Amino acid sequence: MAKLIYSMITSLDGYAEAAEGDLGRGAGDEEVHTFIGDVFRPVKTFLYGRRMYETMVFWETAHAEPDVPPYIVQYARDWQAADKIVYSTTLESVSSERTRIERSFDPDAVRRLKEESEHDLSVDGPNLAAQAIAAGLVDEYHLFVTTSVVGGGKRFFPDGVRLDLDLVDQRSFPSGLIYAHYRTR
């Protein structure tokens, strides 16, 4: 059975989306990007909300940009090879291959997808992840914590949830970014 992984870049104070501005520095250098690519290469299905999909669809054509470094090309190729499911009531069409739209998040359908898949899945975006967490579907959490405190926004973990997790791995980068990998107990 495949694992469902929730991962986001998050601020030091726990926000996956800042109320204003971005989440700060630390996630854009080659070492971090290569690491993220290596960690998520085994993921073959990405579950997105509309806004996260609209951010990530950049990877459909990123390899064609001029002077793209090899680590960006690799990440783009890995993303293009994966299936994408976009949960949205408003998105009319998709602009990437291997992508389909679902109008609502169905925990039972995701549970079946996990049972039938030979490769791990990832849920991305705090709103969609909150639904997966509430349904008890998330097996692992991968946090990439920046050095910024942003004071508000959308939290990585939804309010009202209690989880007992085991730390599996951790790493710090020269940029100050900290990676923490947890598994549900």
TrEMBL record:
Entry-linked SUPFAM superfamilies: Dihydrofolate reductase-like
An example molecular function term from Gene Ontology annotations: 5-amino-6-(5-phosphoribosylamino)uracil reductase activity
Example GO biological process: riboflavin biosynthetic process
Start and end residues of each Bacterial bifunctional deaminase-reductase C-terminal domain: 3-178
PANTHER family: 2,5-DIAMINO-6-RIBOSYLAMINO-4(3H)-PYRIMIDINONE 5'-PHOSPHATE REDUCTASE, DIHYDROFOLATE REDUCTASE FAMILY PROTEIN (AFU_ORTHOLOGUE AFUA_8G06820)
Name this polypeptide is given: Dihydrofolate reductase
